[in-house]
């Protein structure tokens, strides 16, 4: 049974800064310390972490929302999850509410922890510099 990851994280930054960190290839490569190639178009493809992650942009609302089909290269052939990043301006920064549905059982724990280790924590560290 595929599972759903739900996480919420608050950054000391404007929603536009967080959107750009996720959607701009150069900024994404900077916080992740690995190559990223991200289309800014709906229907456009993206790849990150040296090609481990890839997918397609399903919906983009600049500075507010990103919806992507998303998979890891070690996932079952042809299996994609749906990742949704919702950005809301809050006092002192931006709240990012993240939902990823359809995560394969065997990858659930590593992917769930991976968002913290490879996204939220490095993004916070980059913003604090």
Oligomeric state of the chains in view? single chain
Characterize the biggest β-sheet: 7 strands, antiparallel
SSE ordering: EHHEEEEEEH
Query: Which band does the percent of strand residues land in?
Result: 35-45%
In terms of structural class, how would the helical and strand content be classed? alpha+beta
Q: Structurally, how many domains make up the residues?
A: 1
Considering the protein shown, what is the CATH homologous superfamily? START domain
Distance between the termini: 41 Å
Return Rg in Å: 14 Å
Q: DSSP helix count?
A: 3
Using DSSP, what is the number of strands? 7
CATH class: Alpha Beta
Search tags:
7 strands; 29% helix; 129 residues; 7-stranded antiparallel beta sheet; 41% strand; single chain; Alpha-D-Glucose-1,6-Bisphosphate, Chain A, domain 4; globular; alpha+beta
Layout of SSEs?
Blueprint: E1 3-11, H1 15-23, H2 25-32, E2 37-38, E3 45-48, E4 53-61, E5 65-72, E6 81-90, E7 93-103, H3 108-128
Antiparallel strand pairs: 1-7, 2-3, 3-4, 4-5, 5-6, 6-7
Protein architecture, described:
By secondary structure, the chain is of the alpha+beta class. It starts with a strand and ends with a helix. 29% of the residues lie in helices and 41% in strands. The longest helix has 21 residues, at 108-128. Strand 2 and strand 3 form a beta hairpin. It has a single domain, classed as 2-Layer Sandwich (Alpha-D-Glucose-1,6-Bisphosphate, Chain A, domain 4). It has a seven-stranded antiparallel beta sheet with strand order 1-7-6-5-4-3-2, with helices on one face. It is built from three helices and seven strands.
């Amino acid at each position: 049974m595929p599972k759903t990851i739900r996480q919420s994280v608050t950054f000391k930054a404007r929603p536009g800064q967080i959107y750009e960190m996720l959607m701009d290839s150069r900024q994404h490569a900077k916080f992740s310390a690995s190559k990223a190639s991200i289309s800014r178009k709906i229907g456009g493809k993206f790849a990150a972490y040296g090609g481990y992650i890839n997918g397609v942009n399903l919906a983009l609302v600049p500075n507010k929302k990103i919806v992507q089909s998303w998979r890891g290269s070690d996932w079952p052939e042809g299996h994609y999850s749906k990742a949704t990043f919702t950005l809301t301006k809050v006092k002192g920064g931006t709240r990012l509410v993240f939902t990823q549905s359809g995560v394969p059982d065997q990858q659930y724990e590593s992917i769930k922890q991976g968002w913290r280790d490879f996204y939220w924590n490095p993004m916070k560290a980059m913003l604090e510099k």
